[in-house]
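Problem 12. The chain below contains 241 residues. Write out its predicted structure in token notation.
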Amino acid sequence: MDSPSWHLVQALNTLIEKDGHTPAVEGFFDKVKPLSAAQEQMIRDHAAKSAESTAKKALGVQHWVHDKNWVDSLMLLESRPTINIEGLVAGYTGPGGKTVLPHKAVAKIDMRLVPDMTAADTLAKLKAHLAKNGFADVEVNMSGGYNPTQTDADSKLIKTQIATYKKLGVEPQLWPRSAGSWPGFVFTDPPLSLPAGHFGLGHGTGAHAPDEYYLIESTNPKVQGLDGAVASFVEYLYALS
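Solution.
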């Protein structure tokens, strides 16, 4: 009898190149918009002002993919889409052995997109890729997601943010894109086609992790707590208006 587990593993194996990193889905990079010269300079400026050793320590790694240097690794992070396996479930995974043939195998994956890719087009390419490679029977269910988004650094919104940060004594660093997710497309896509971005003072980290935190009260005069974070939005929205 066929094994759903092996069938799924073989299907997943077609999604990525032998380097274990580069997406292999046909047409996956067709709509990828390269970073502009100005965006690449933002990354270089950030790399020069941030410690590579701190980033490695936070992520628990010794080197970057393909042994890239600090700048090139950041260029890859901000310019290339990815396919990631979040989790795999099949059969018996408890203590001891059970010589069973699982009746079902499930994988949860995420695909990080960059402009000008779209969620709908990428999903269609994934399904077409599986069918072409003999895995049309693998069921694909999109549980969430949306289009990528980016905003012009010269927009009124971003310029106001920068001016507000400086007024509050913070020298901001512009970041061309973020290898994360937020539904900014509802503003930047038609019919609104408006700039959108992130703003705020304070400090937090560990997003999506059990130890995620946000600083409520600060003893460091250079770092705002929740009160300063709220006040920063008052300054920002007033300046924008």
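Discussion. Residues 163 and 196 are 16 Å apart (CA to CA). Students who got a different answer should revisit the alignment rule from Section 12.3.
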